[in-house]
Amino acid sequence: MVPVVDVVEIGNGGGSIAWVDDFDKLHVGPQSAARCPARGLRRGGREATTTDANLASGGSTRSTSAGSTPTWTQWTRALRAVAEQLQVDTAEAARGIVRIANNNMVNALKLIS
User: Fold this and answer.
1) Interaxial angle between packed helices 90-112 and 72-86, expressed in degrees from 0 to 180 and rounded to the nearest 10
2) For residue 49, how many other CB atoms are within 10 A of its CB?
3) Contacts for 63 with CB less than 8 Å, ≥ 6 apart
4) What pLDDT score was predicted for residue 30?
5) CA-CA distances (angstroms) from residue 6 to 3, 52, 75, 105, 113?
6) What's the pTM value of the predicted model, to 2 decimals?
7) What would the DSSP string read from start to end of 34-81?
8) Which helix (H) or strand (E) holds 99?
9) What is the pLDDT of residue 71?
10) How many Cα atoms within 13 Å fall on the side-chain side of residue 10?
11) 25-83 pLDDT tens trace
């Protein structure tokens, strides 16, 4: 026998993209904005990320790594499409994205524990 390491991974970083499926169910990941988690803030992206949701809900620092401070309008712009699909306000969509991202991590921990 050869020793092996059992690895469980989850794609759930700050760049994980939030999306709504055909049944109006919110998901986070596994798609990613790659190296620019706040793509909606810096590059005008239309897809909300976990970072966008954390910034909008006050869960992260409001200063980007480049030292700039995006406005509330910039944070919510990326979240607006998700909120409209779910028929909720932008703040509720942001909280939902954060909750799902956190639950994804908890489920991965349960799997390996």
Assistant:
1) 80
2) 30
3) 69
4) 85
5) 10, 32, 38, 17, 12
6) 0.74
7) TT-TTHHHHS--SS-BHHHHHHHTT-S-SS-TTS----HHHHHHHHHH
8) helix 90-112
9) 58
10) 17
11) 999 988 887 655 544 444 456 788 888 898 888 766 555 554 555 556 666 777 998 99
Rg (CA), the chain: 15
Rounded to an integer, what distance in angstroms lies between the CA atom of residue 33 and that of residue 29?
Answer: 10
Which residue's structure tokens are 């942001």? 94
Query: Is residue 19 classed as helix, strand or coil in its secondary structure?
Result: strand
Looking at the DSSP bridge assignments, the partners of residue 28 are: 18
Specify the residue for token string 């991974």: 9
Q: Does residue 23 surpass a pLDDT of 70? A: yes
